[in-house]
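Box 4.2: Ligand-aware structure prediction
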Amino acid sequence: MNLRIGTGGDFPEAVLDGLDAACTLTWREKADHLLFHILDAPPHGRIYHTSKNDKWPDGCPCEKVASDVLDKMKKKNITYHVLRCSNHLNMMITEFKKYIDVKALTFDDKITFENIITRQVCQRLIDTEMTLKKT
Ligand SMILES: [Zn+2]
């Protein structure tokens, strides 16, 4: 198979398609479901950004909508973390928060992805341990 790398042409990305695909993964039932989403661009659709450079200003051409995709994530008990690689995600985060809890994480040169992810996973383990001790 030959793959060609391109820029995609416009600024937004198929964010909802990616999240929808994540819902189709096999998630173990009795495990914590943590999703770390590293991204720099919002989904297609003018409700997620103010850029004029969007081929699909009315939203994803496959007609996926946040309410459906995020509802699937909620039903799968997926804890959603956004690791921001740009300042273009605020509208998306605000919109997504209407449907699910979004843990928006920022990082800089001193705090790396792995530090952020490790910290979140450790905190989840501590929370789970505390919950188990109470029961
Ligand atoms: Zn799509």
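In the box above, the bound molecule is zinc ion. The two ends are 53 Å apart (CA to CA).
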